[in-house]
């Protein structure tokens, strides 16, 4: 199990040095998978205000991951970072 966590941590570090900045949709996917992997399902008690567009987009992206296991979210995150790392700019 720790192999997955180690690989995940490595992917998190790698994501900060990608060859080119991913588009907003991809960034939201990375964010939501990271949050799901590290914190689990989002707390829906406190949704952001409707005029805080960035927070709302992050909230919605994370909400879509609801029910995804931490391991599954880690694997998806690792795959996405690997794809992004292999893209040439």
Automatic annotation (TrEMBL):
Which InterPro entries does the entry link to?
A: Acyl-CoA-binding_protein, Acyl-CoA-binding_sf, FERM/acyl-CoA-bd_prot_sf
Recorded hits in Pfam families, A to Z, give:
ACBP
Taxonomic superkingdom = Bacteria
Q: Name one GO biological process term.
A: fatty acid metabolic process
What molecular function does GO assign, one term? fatty-acyl-CoA binding
Gene3D superfamilies attached to this UniProt entry: 1.20.80.10
Q: Which UniProt keywords apply?
A: Lipid-binding
**SUPFAM superfamilies the record matches:** Acyl-CoA binding protein
**Where would I find the ACB domain in this sequence?**
4-89
The answer to keyword DNA-binding applying to this record is no
Kindly provide the name given to this protein in its UniProt entry. Answer: Acyl-CoA-binding protein
Species name = Mucilaginibacter rubeus
